[in-house]
Request: fold
Amino acid sequence: MIVDNLANAANYYNLHPLFEKAFEFIGKLDIDNVEAGTTEIEGNLLKATIAEAKLKPAAAAKLETHKRFIDIQMPVTKAETFGWKSLSSLSQPKEGYDVNNDIEFFDDDPSTFVTLVPGEFIIFSPEDGHAPLIGEGEIKKIIIKVAVI
Reply:
């Protein structure tokens, strides 16, 4: 897991060949007026979703993992808290891996929590169990899916 401010995004370009394109996409958005929807940036290898969702209490948030994609997530309208626990420590799979949606949920409790405010981002690799959308009220956020290559 990586947490940082969007102003420092260039520090992570060398971690994946598509990270620069991902952060350039975010940088070109009119963040205050961005509308919900999904955009393919680089075919199936890199796509962005602007999502509007209801936040939930930490107890209701489930840890999830992805095998084929890295997540870059960034709150747009308000703070969002994320739970985290290493995949190697997860021991309570909920229903197994859903290959079509590249997701597996777990009933384990997060080992730590981090809260981001607009302008900050978080990167989750396939080794990171993460529970997004923790908080109160409604949120607009950016989720970038970066293929593991």
